[in-house]
Write a structure and sequence with these properties.
Blueprint lengths: L13 H7 L17 H12 L5
């Protein structure tokens, strides 16, 4: 792995996401300077997208 990429763990793991919704995975790249809350946004977005549908 490149030395300028940092792995961040989030509460939702890959197997849980795969079991929850039968959807095709997509990638969203969040780019920008360090300390701009990209990881926070990614974690919050993941929680929103994996909430059960009403």
């Amino acid at each position: 792995m490149s030395n300028n990429i940092a792995w961040h763990s989030h509460p939702m793991n890959q197997s849980t996401r795969a079991q929850q919704k039968p959807q095709k995975p997509q990638v969203i790249w969040l780019t920008g300077l360090s300390a701009l809350a990209k990881s926070t946004i990614a974690g919050d977005l993941e929680q929103i997208l994996t909430q059960p549908s009403p």
